[in-house]
Structure to design on (59 residues):
């Protein structure tokens, strides 16, 4: 890998780690590896409820 890419990855690693932790929790706790329904609106609602659940778990 190019040294510039390595520096960029190190710079954003802490933010990426926090975001990926949230997605991992949603997949584990709320079984979100696949969407349960078809359609953008229903899938968005499912993800919104999961995000709300993850925020409640963190408190």
């Amino acid at each position: 890998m190019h040294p510039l890419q390595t520096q960029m990855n190190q710079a954003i690693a802490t933010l990426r780690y926090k975001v990926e932790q949230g997605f991992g929790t949603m997949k584990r706790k709320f079984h979100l590896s696949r969407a349960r329904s078809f359609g953008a609106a229903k899938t968005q609602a499912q993800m919104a409820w999961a995000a709300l659940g993850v925020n409640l778990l963190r408190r």
In short: Residues 3-58 form one domain.
